[in-house]
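Q: For a teaching session next week I want to show students how multiple molecules come together into a single three-dimensional assembly. I've collected the sequence lines for a complex. Could you give me the predicted structure tokens for the whole thing so I can convert them for display?
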Amino acid sequence: MITVTINGKKIALNKPVTILEAARKADIYIPTLCNHPMLEPFGGCRLCLVEIEKMPKLQASCTQYVTDGMTVWTETEKVLEARRAMLEFLLINHPLDCPYCDKAGECDLQDSTMQCGPAIGRFKEGKRKLPECYDDPIIVTNMERCILCSRCVRMCSDVQGAHAITITNRGSKSCVEPFSGGRFDCEYCGNCITVCPVGSLMSRLHKHTYRPWYIEKEIETVCSFCGVGCSFVAQIRGDSIVRVEPRPDLGLNKGLLCVKGRFGFDYTASPSRLKSPLLQKNGDLKQTTWAEALSHTAGKLKEIKEKYGPAAIGAVASGLCTNEDNYTLQRFMRSVVGSNNIDSTTGFFYGPAQRFLEDIFGQGVTLNPMQGIANSDGVFVIGADPSAVAPVLGLQVRAASRKGIPVVTVGHMPGLKRFATCSLVPDAFSEPALLNRLISGLMKKRPVCGENEFFEGAIKKFMLSTGDDIADPCGLSNNDIERAVNELDLMTNPAVLIGRQVVQRSDASVLLLQLSVLTYLLNGRIYLISELPNDQGLVDMGCRPDMLPGGRPVFSDSMRKRYEDSYGSEIPSAQGMSLMEMIQAAHEGNLKALYVMGENLLPDLPDTGYVKEALSKLELLVVQDTLMNETAELAHVVLPACSWPEAEGSYTNFEGRMQHVRKAVHGEAMEGWKIISEVAKIIGSDFGFLTVVDILAELTKVSPIHKGITYAEMDGGKCLWPYNGEPLRDSAKDFALPDITLLKRAKDCGRPYLFADQQLFHSGTIGRNSSALSMLMPASYVKVGNALSEKKSIQAGDVAGIASGIKSAELDVIIDPDLKGMMVLIPNILADKGVMSFMKWNMNPDFKNPALDGNEIEISKLRSKAEEVSA
Ligand code: SF4
Ligand code: SF4
Ligand code: SF4
Ligand code: FES
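A: Of course. Below is the structure for the complete assembly, covering every listed component.
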């Protein structure tokens, strides 16, 4: 125990902390400027000076640690004089433009000066003049106001890892500048704006739109973009969100956000926002009343069920919708329609991957705390670049790397390029060969340990090739692979991060099995890189064709009975159709009605033309969504649902953390769960849901894992897996192991291969509807590497023709020197030129999801940009 006395007050501490931290614990105020809770102590501004007995000079309290028996004074005349002097010094060059500056009212310099600064400054010389800089579309800089605390630079380098800005020049000419010049050209996380204590770095999007004291309310809520589930405070004025503010003491993101969470929320105010129901009449969608839209939907569903049976109806849930919406949709499908035909795009990756891994290791194996990544002793990443699709999760990997922990990545991962200690980029689709070699290399160093006899028995059945007979099985040298094995061998409890690309391919089960073996050998923890805010919740709510709420298999009689008793109706024991099976069935005329909630199927499913044909054959297509989109344009009924800030509910993030999504603004549409409940009521089934509390109450009654959960528990941040539920499914003793003895030797086909480019600045339909995100990435593009660029004589800035057999388009070319071989990347930014529209697919027989391998593509130069401009 350490005891320190500050201003006569004795403070007992059980570990050494800085004087500043000790003072704050005891509610003693010390002004600071360069210090910030998200950054390491810096000791640059000297505003936090204090007097310590037996020390001749004043000390910076933010860097000086307490010692037992230390006596500190924070308000002596010497200290106050030093503070006045420091503030007077800082104000020599700081303009007195508080009435104009957006930071006024929440400015640390203004507050400190008011509290302890000099009444007047003695310097009469002219102040430095620097114009406000509007070169960047998102960040506006005003370097006259900069006090050179370096908080922004430290945030950008030490936490964000982007190294995009620095302090240039010396003395009074010093200022903060992006390395790239006027435009920031960075990751646009805005975390530098969060930490800037003055009005030097500000969001251009919010400039002069309000004053801090005009904020009418602040609502704590959760981001709606990805599966990390960052928390922030939505600041409301006049029933609209003017800004979102992360806070260091809030949620798992602890003050950090990414570009999507910070700037993308304006999609909720997009002109495409649906506000009233639409009904198709004579081929056109016409505005109608809620009563007509709901009774038409209910009537047609009833008619189709009676005519063709429940199996002719399907539903698409969404990882963008809340647990409450998803639970109600599955309740509707199982208890009103009587079908297990419910799935979503979460079924393309997250759902089947989790089911496969849980069958091996038991339920909840992928639900691990995010902080465990930075605190592990190794990280292995495959299948997605977390820095692009779940950016704050990516920061954990970067933090691990900064600590000197080995980070091994497999695949093209620009966001982790500088952070991976070993970066393996195998030839297209040769990951199984690479993993086989990593496993066999590791097994030589670490034989199986005998802990899980069943799994180890299964592993031993495989003839894991040593790969010694294959000189170059995956486009990587023996040295590269040996180095990776050595790095892996340093790890004793690493984080294994698995992304989408591992599962959207025909050999997905082979890869997942290999990754399970690797995780087992490494004693690792698995994380699935969730791309939607409620991927996990959707699975937990039973929006899978094979799973009931709580992750209970639909074929289990005893588990089904629990739900049947509660719902008062029978649930079919057979697995329902997956999303792609439903699309196929619609194309073949066997599925007659589809209720789509929150998913824009046309741009997000492969082979847009085929999907469009399938949807056009339906007798009833209902789209319940927040934004008008390409799928809604084909619908017979469009039901406008409340968007993310307009309704109460919850999301479950990739850790299994249930978080309260609060209503922040009023909306003209109806809550998603309420729309479904109303349709059910017209058909004759009243769920009795009046508010989300009723839905949660039913869920906690029927779902064994959600027992006793309340919104209050979520609010306290305590709703963490495994909650307080009943015993869970253990590893399945009879899971079918894929045959990996027949691994094909990868061969370079020599032709360009199409992959999806994972975009930091975009996130499907909601990203497209954000003016801020669209500003950062307004157009689609095609990315190729040096090899393909040379082979096809294509340069950066050229316009290339792309043809995949089902779709052709013209796209601007970007050269990415890190792209290997014949890889071609297109993002899914624009619906009509999105990567999925070019993609052909096959049904993966194990997961019933679309396998996207085999997408060879033609690419040729059409013209150079210069020719285009002159034409
Ligand atoms: S927005 Fe983010 S990446 Fe860009 S300069 Fe600021 S901290 Fe760095
Ligand atoms: S821009 Fe802001 S955070 Fe950066 S050094 Fe200047 S005052 Fe500090
Ligand atoms: S990391 Fe994900 S949850 Fe966090 S702010 Fe970004 S998009 Fe939102
Ligand atoms: S806050 Fe301590 S030196 Fe700046």
